[in-house]
Design a protein that fits this description.
The longest helix is centred in the middle third of the chain and has 18 residues. The protein starts with 19 loop residues before the first helix and ends in a 20-residue tail after the last helix. Helices cover 32% and strands 0% of the residues. The relative contact order is 0.19. It is flat.
Amino acid sequence: MIKAKLLNGRTKAMIVTSSCPAAARYKLALEQYVKDDNPEYSDYRVLMAFSGKLTSQ
């Protein structure tokens, strides 16, 4: 897990979801968007953070 202080103020956006599975879906969708649909964003990375446990559903 990456601690906030290690981001060095480089965070550009935050999405708050209602559940861990929703956060995982957003992460996958954003990674796909950055990778395939918009190569000009290839230097961007997606970080997912949540509390609790993520279980497959």
